[in-house]
């Protein structure tokens, strides 16, 4: 993934040698709070090993919103906003991890 420059695709930082994605699965809804807290604590603890950026498919409950999107696209974010302004100014394509137009 690091063979191309970040400006050659939408995805921003490609310098990490490995990625870590935290996932927890359980069946009993009574365990929701404890399991969600465990995953959030684990992600927070692993941040010290993290360089920059994020991968949007590891977004959890998307509680970080725009910060996560900006982090994932890095220096490409403003270029993508300009494209969104030009080709989707009404934000028709707004599901999932959305780059919002400014127009």
Account of the protein in words:
The protein has one domain. 34% of the residues lie in helices and 0% in strands. It has helices spanning 32-46, 65-73, 77-87. The chain is flat and about 45 Å long. The model has no long low-confidence stretch (mean pLDDT 83).
Q: What is this entry, summarized?
A:
By secondary structure, this protein is mainly α. The chain has 3 helices and no strands.
Average pLDDT metric: 83
Beginning-to-end CA distance, first to last residue: 33 Å
Radius of gyration: 16 Å
| Number of β-strand runs | 0
For this entry, give a set of tags.
103 residues, mainly alpha, 0% strand
Question: Helices, strands, pairings?
Answer:
Elements: H1 32-46, H2 65-73, H3 77-87
């Amino acid at each position: 993934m690091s063979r191309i420059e970040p400006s050659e695709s939408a995805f921003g930082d490609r310098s990490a040698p490995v990625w870590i994605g935290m996932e927890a699965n359980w069946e009993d809804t009574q365990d929701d709070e404890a399991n969600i807290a465990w995953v959030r604590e684990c992600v927070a603890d692993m941040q010290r090993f993290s360089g920059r950026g994020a991968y949007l498919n590891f977004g959890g409950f998307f509680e970080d919103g725009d910060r996560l999107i900006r982090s994932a696209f890095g220096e490409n974010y403003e270029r993508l906003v300009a494209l969104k302004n030009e080709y989707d100014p009404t934000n028709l394509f707004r599901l999932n991890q959305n780059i919002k137009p400014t127009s």
